[in-house]
Amino acid sequence: MQGTLDGRAIIVTGAGGGIGRAASLIFAQAGARVVVSDIDVGSGEETVKQISAQGGTAMFVKTDIANEASVVALVEQTVSAYGKLDGAFNNAGIAPSHKSFHDISAAEWQRVVDVDLTGAFLCMKHEIAAMLQTGGGSIVNTASALGVVAVPSAADYIAAKHGVIGLTKAAAVDYGCRNIRVNAVLPGLIMTPLVKEALRDPEYASHFEKYKAQHLVGRVGLPEEIAKAAEWLLSDAASFVTGHSMGVDGGWTTV
Length: 255
Ligand SMILES: NC(=O)c1ccc[n+]([C@@H]2O[C@H](COP(=O)([O-])OP(=O)(O)OC[C@H]3O[C@@H](n4cnc5c(N)ncnc54)[C@H](O)[C@@H]3O)[C@@H](O)[C@H]2O)c1
Prior knowledge:
The structure is a single chain. α5 links the parallel β5 and β6 (180-187). A 7-stranded parallel sheet has the order 3-2-1-4-5-6-7, sandwiched between helices. It has helices spanning 18-29, 41-53, 68-82, 106-133, 155-175, 193-198, 202-213, 223-234, and strands at 9-13, 33-38, 57-62, 87-90, 137-142, 180-187, 245-248. The model has no long low-confidence stretch (mean pLDDT 97). The chain is an alpha/beta fold. It has 8 helices and 7 strands; from the N terminus they run βαβαβαβαβαβαααβ. The structure holds nicotinamide-adenine-dinucleotide. Nicotinamide-adenine-dinucleotide binds next to α1, α4 and α6.
């Protein structure tokens, strides 16, 4: 049976983490050749190992998405290994500094914006340039439900994720006529290492039950539930979808 992403060369950033690993495994099951990229070597290599164990094709490229030279190398190594770049899931990100607005230092603000917003820009910029060489492609960015709503003590992250939605729309407008589709997934709360780490912060933990209850389905999500949405957006099944921000949030942002 043909997979939805058969033979496609697809970059996944943050592929050592919760959502990125689930996406890498699911894209590989759908037939993609996955470029597993992460700043953390051990977790990225583990993702490649798991893809190989299930009979899929993948390679690891260590990447810091906040560093332009590193992103350029990621795209170059992809094209060099697989001949072209068909798709990208720009998913790597870091958590908010979890401080009240007026307590966030300029350095803390800059770090979150560098990774969560500038990182997405740099990846899109160089992926699009490569896709233009070979006739097009499809990009999915991981924004967040916090790209459309706000919660306490996350101003840096909220601003960055609102920005990712803006970047998604801007690129969709610029490249719609050149066969490059650009969409975003907006996860609700997903139980991943990022959230487990955030729960160590007493203030975040004190709000957690309330956040959980805001999901209409009454639970937090699984990484695979975001990965399946990204797979669909990357595939030809979504051929008429671009510039879209898809909530995958158990209904959180509906109310
Ligand atoms: N988990 C959630 O509830 C949730 C909700 C909404 C949005 N998101 C977003 O989903 C994405 C994935 O989050 P996750 O929950 O899987 O987190 P995670 O911490 O499990 O994974 C994130 C991965 O990104 C990598 N990374 C961090 N900085 C990087 C950098 N500069 N360059 C390259 N890789 C880097 C980490 O090493 C890690 O493997 C993030 O963009 C996050 O903001 C998560």
